[in-house]
Amino acid sequence: MKKKYSRFRELWAVPKYQSLFKLGGYVIFFTLFFILASLGNLNNKSNTQNFTSYNTMKKNLTTENLTIKYKIDALENYYLEGTIIDDVLSVTLEINDEIKKIKIIDEKVYLIQKNEEILNDTLLKDINLIYLFPKKVMNILDDNAALKNTSKDEKVISYSIDNKSYSLYLNDYEIEKIIIFDGMITYTLEYSIIK
Known about the structure:
The chain has 195 residues and is an alpha+beta fold. It has four helices and eleven strands, in the order αααββββββαβββββ. It has helices spanning 2-13, 15-44, 54-63, 134-143, and strands spanning 66-73, 77-85, 88-95, 98-105, 108-113, 116-119, 149-150, 156-161, 164-170, 175-182, 185-193. The chain has an eleven-stranded antiparallel beta sheet with strand order 6-5-4-3-2-1-11-10-9-8-7, covered by helices on one side. Helix 3 crosses helix 4 (134-143). The radius of gyration is 31 Å and the shape is elongated.
């Protein structure tokens, strides 16, 4: 021990080595300081995360006003973008490079031209209008709750009902997308709650 201490005193006498020892001491001090500070922050973080239950997500989807983006692949491709407010679907419809404003009330399609609503039964003739309203889709799924399959990460819930496939995609707070395969028609329905 005395040999090491005497060797240290010899090196300490040289200014170049004295600066290196001081620098090394500062490096060790600040390294320990940052390690302890980061460990302290890890202990302060809460392990509980806020998740919304599936039933709450379902309730929000069926009762709140929504902005929607729908893509429907059938004989023709349909793109709908707009809102559902008080069970009235008001959207811009793109079909065959034509853009039309429509409103759907009680499964009746109205074409809006010059602020006038004109009943049009042929515009969405290939489409099951029930699927465009989340409340009606959720009623179908609730009636068949025994057929519910949940993924391991609980982010996808799927149902197979009467040769139709329903998949609900969840994030931590809401149901963000529903995909329905019904025969040769695919419905991709994206939602977000209007805040």
